[in-house]
Amino acid sequence: MDLNYLYHRHQISLFMADHAKCDQSRRAHRGLADGYALRISQRRLTAGLAGAA
Prior knowledge:
This protein has helices at about 5-20, 25-45. By secondary structure, it is mostly helical.
């Protein structure tokens, strides 16, 4: 999966969490954002990019 796609999905998930109508939706979108952030970090580490953390 392309890093740009992961960054895009991460930002959408954060936006959706910020604009969610209920706590359950907010938590779900935040969980997705956290998952994308982890995948981004892993990709950056395997690619040898600085600031992977």
